[in-house]
Amino acid sequence: MIQIHRIKCGNANCYVLEENGNAVLVDTGKTEHRKEIEETIKQKTSGLTIKLIVLTHAHFDHCQNAVYFSKQFQASIAMHRNDIGLIRDQMREALSAKTIPGKIVLGASIASFKKVAMDFAPDVFLKDGDSLGRYGISAKVIGLPGHTKGSIGIDCGEAGVIVGDALMNMFYPTVSMLYGDRNTMLQSAEKIARLGSIPVYFGHGKPVQNRGWR
Length: 214
Description:
single chain, alpha/beta, 5-stranded mixed sheet, about 210 residues
């Protein structure tokens, strides 16, 4: 079974998926947390080779270290094609929030987005249903648009599901507090709920058991 190693980096998370001596890194965090992420990866993988870096979406707090770790591990960068435009322009897709905590996070996020400059090109494009089997991990990509157009997660079967920011646990477990398209975001939350009683691993916050999210 896949082992999911959570790497806490500031208020966000990265993950290492490990199975039968193979490893995949999911998200890469902000540059300010690069050193602690790198040290934790080395501790958790114990010399395993990371074969792929999967980005759940292109917001900088999830992918700012993508190029660095790609070079460090000689690993390809993978993401959904629909988020390419966000790499260079974090403001390309407008975000909305409905709750008071969401509006607080939205204000802070927009202020940060305006200061960020990134430029990289993914090596691999992933879509709903794609397998990570060629990288030695028996998991599949699950399309979770709504937070961004190209948001994805990783369905690791009984081990759990990594959802990026399709759901959040910054203040409490909930549907994404920030979204580009609310109806699509809610549909993705329902898609996660249908996976059944498995652990949910968030881009922000501690994992919890899956539930009905609407």
